[in-house]
Amino acid sequence: MKSPAFHCILSSVQALAQRERLSERDAAEKLVQTFRKLDSLWSRYVVREGLEKIRGPQSRPVSTFRS
């Protein structure tokens, strides 16, 4: 896994570990937790957007989505 994206994530782990004085493992776990939260928010947004499209133009706009 030597893709540019992987390299960026690895650099982020190292930077977080240094900034927060954590082990790289702990920093990686914090980043994974953050990615999981983002994924959850994105999934809820996509579901909401799909429901709004199904309901049609009479429904409220997607921009009113709240987490």
Query: Outline, from the CA principal axes?
Result: elongated
Low-confidence stretches are none
How many beta-strand elements? Answer: 0
Number of alpha- plus pi-helical segments: 2
The fraction of residues assigned to DSSP E strands is under 5%
- Main sheet characteristics: none
Rg from alpha-carbon coordinates: 18 Å
Label the structural class: mainly alpha
Overall pLDDT score = 87
Helices and strands, in order, run as HH
Oligomeric state of the chains present here: single chain
* Number of structurally distinct domains: 1
User: Termini separation (Å)?
Assistant: 33 Å
Q: What percent of residues adopt helix (DSSP H or I)?
A: over 70%
Question: How does this structure look, described?
Answer:
Helices cover 73% and strands 0% of the residues. By secondary structure, it is mainly alpha-helical. The chain is elongated. The protein contains two helices and no strands. It has one domain. The model has no long low-confidence stretch (mean pLDDT 87). Helix 1 (4-20) crosses helix 2 (24-55).
Key features of this structure:
67 residues; elongated; mainly alpha
Quick take:
With 67 residues, the chain is an all-alpha fold. It has one domain.
Write the layout of secondary structure elements.
Elements: H1 4-20, H2 24-55
